[in-house]
Amino acid sequence: MVKVFYSDITNCEYSQVEVDNFHMLRKDYVNSIQDMDRKRQSAFVWMLLQKVLSDINVSGNFSVDSKGKWRIIEGGAKFSIAHSGNIVAVAVGDAEFLGIDVEKISEKVLKLEKKLGDYKPVNMSNIEHITREWTKKESAFKAGKKCEFYSRKIYDKNGEEYFLTLCAKDKCEDFCYVDFKSLYKF
Known about the structure:
The radius of gyration is 16 Å and the shape is globular. The strands form three sheets. It has a four-stranded mixed beta sheet, with helices on one face. The chain has helices at 16-20, 24-32, 36-55, 127-143, 180-183, and strands spanning 2-8, 62-64, 70-72, 78-84, 87-93, 98-104, 148-155, 161-168, 172-177. The longest helix has 20 residues, at 36-55. By secondary structure, it is α+β, with helices and mostly antiparallel strands. The protein is built from five helices and nine strands, in the order βαααβββββαβββα.
């Protein structure tokens, strides 16, 4: 079984204090990011993952494999993370193959036409459809294999639209919204 958790970080400010509490590998990774928007997104997606793992009693000790993919050292749980704009998302489960992607629906995806490959939709003028197909491609890439797709259209607090897609071998149990403001004091 796989569960997806996502959160809107619209009104959440980046805090180096929170990052300093991360495990050394994650802290080094987040601190290496130069772009402040990406740094903020990365810090919050790792905070969301840590909260989810804590709730299901899985250790938050990570390693990075030879392909650069993050892994949980103990417990057998697998995860995938994604962020775009004001949305951060994690998928957690025991699925052999598991990948997640989120993308803000915008004209930016029109530039991705050549990268869509087999996922290229017939109507390249439909931005919403292109975005959904892009999240399928990215989630399959992260999973390492094309599996079942589960997509949802979600919104941030500003009304911006996103597609959130899970690619997993196992069934998706649920898409759960997590309110960051209730978890942390910002």
